[in-house]
Description:
Elements: H1 4-17, H2 20-25, E1 27-35, E2 39-42, H3 43-57, E3 62-70, E4 74-84, E5 100-112, E6 115-123, H4 125-132, H5 141-164
Parallel strand pairs: 1-6
Antiparallel strand pairs: 1-2, 3-4, 4-5, 5-6
Amino acid sequence: MPSSNEVATNYFACVTRQDIEGMIDCWAPGSSARFIGMDELQVERDYPVWFGNLFSCFPDFRFEVENIIAGEDEAAVRWRATGTFDGEGIFEGFRPNGATIDIEGIDLLTIEDGKITGIIALLNGLDMARQLGAVPPRGSFADRAMAGAFNARTAVTSKIRELRS
């Protein structure tokens, strides 16, 4: 039976090759992946569409494993992904606009009998949204205006609570 390190290495080699069938083959039937703050996917049902959209919208998608730390039935994988959002389709509700991404993340894999039974993926979704242009750049006028509007709303809500007490 392959070690957790070998399972993680094989799975992410499939991601690097954009081999969705190979990715699914690394999983135990009925398993799911959670992308914190983004999505939860049932592997057999959702992977072909979700990853198909990712790879279609980022035709030059490049994925690199930077480090794997593996135990007996788990592995932590630190990775980096880059690409240009200039392909076809829709990803996470957005149409490609030519923006580039350079993001880092960590996937925590649970492994049983040589198959992945779960992944919890952590990445900075806000940073990705900023890079895609869906959210204003950090420190920009629009970013400061959004923060100001949020803080004004918080102050009004606080004052209303205070007046009701």
